[in-house]
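Running log. JK asked me to keep both predictions on one page so they can be read side by side. First protein, sequence followed by its tokens:
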Amino acid sequence: MEANGAVKTTGPLKGVRVLDWTMWQFGPVSTSMMGDMGAEVIKIEALDGDAGRGLMRASRSGTGLPGDRNAYFETTNRNKKGIAVNLKTQQGRDIIYKLVGSADVFVQNFRQGVAERLGVGYDTLHEINPLLVYGSASGYGPNGPDSALPSFDGCGQARGGLMISATPVGTKVPSRVSGGVSDQIGAIMLCQGVLAALVARHTQGIGQKVDTSHLSANMWLQGLGISMAMMMGVDMGAYERDNPRNALANLYMCKDERWIQLMHLQPDRYWESFMTVMGLEDLISDPRFETMDSRMNHGRELVEALDAAFLTKTFDEWDKIFRSGYDFIYAKVQGITELVDDPQVISNDYITNFDHPTIGPVQMCNHPNIYSETPSGIFREAPELGQHTEEILIDELDYSWDDINDLRDAGVIL
């Protein structure tokens, strides 16, 4: 495992400067991912800070940490420096304009028109730096009648179809997936868009604006189902465990009440061996289950038989049997808190250790990609409000201490 500081000098985005004027989760996570990859990310906040700093609860969990730190903010803003600037003043905007001159990327996720009113819209910053990649995150895209509407995670899940897709058949109340997944996939797609634009800048010599929305990202997350539905005119629909299309790609509960997910997308290939291992040899030649189509037509009966069989052994017992010379495709259904003990998670450093200067040793979800020559990682905690303002103004923008005092007295910086 690489040390926390390794990515600072070896990440694949080493040498890229990102200006991050974002808040909450969608925007901040996209730039945090760039920081994971070694980019120098400077988080720009108003003098009262990112609203995410004050989030008291995430779902049913509190966010408080020692030293008045916030788990939500720490997670979404790691690997960044931080400055606090009043963009409602010309002096504050001038600071940003100077940073833009040497920046590669600028990212914002404010409502439509806010960036333009404060003088940091794409057209303005493009004039200062024509090669700038400008990332913009929104709820519903830059065009259309709802382009100016605000949006948060649940809105993205709702309008993008994810909420209905996650709702079991027969359930009247739509299900919302926890953990801000709509924001998270939006952030991933925005990061991907910015990286593509950086490649275009390198190969074609152009800067440009990249727009990503909750709506587009959640649709792309379900892109297979949406595209197939458009081509075939049939909605794939939610999974129905008790009457599945393919009983060998289904959920079953074991004796210890642990669930197992089977994923045999070529069920005929596994039919005889799997039925034999499950002790259901009598079903192999049963006319109801001879073909994929017949098994689908008799899905309930097959699930009932498999339910009864799985309840005879614990998951660990089935796991040991399945690993004994078979090539079955399955996984244990795990909760988030179990992942820290998963041997695959440990072996690949998917949850990594970070020595936080205030909180102490902590574990965090690591960057999802492994780079053989330019490792990513967590090397810097989320910044305190305005933590690096003086450092950046003096060391990088040639402001003097007298300038700092004047800016502070004028309410431009903290």
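And the second, directly underneath as requested:
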Amino acid sequence: MDVKFLRAGSTLIVRMAGELDHHVADKLRTKIDDRMSREKLRNILFDFKEVQFMDSSGLGMILGRYKNVAGKGGKVLVCSLNPRVRRIFEMAGLQNKITICRSEKEALTGA
């Protein structure tokens, strides 16, 4: 998986490409937590535009970031979900906790 990190104000944007599975979830979790702490960021936006697949490890990583960020008053948002990944989100009930947006632009106007 290819991951790019960007900053927009107090939001960490995580642009991912490839498969979000158990091979990358732990490494990505560590990098995100480190960056959030080091840069004192409040929110996370996961951009799924280039993600073709996500398994339960990916869901767990996102849910864990939600718990960390929400506990400090921040938000976790996701955008650009393809139908397959959106279905996984909905089956897990994450749409009840995490805001799903169509694009980065839409997400950042609400963050």
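Observation for JK regarding the second prediction: DSSP finds four helices and five strands in the chain.
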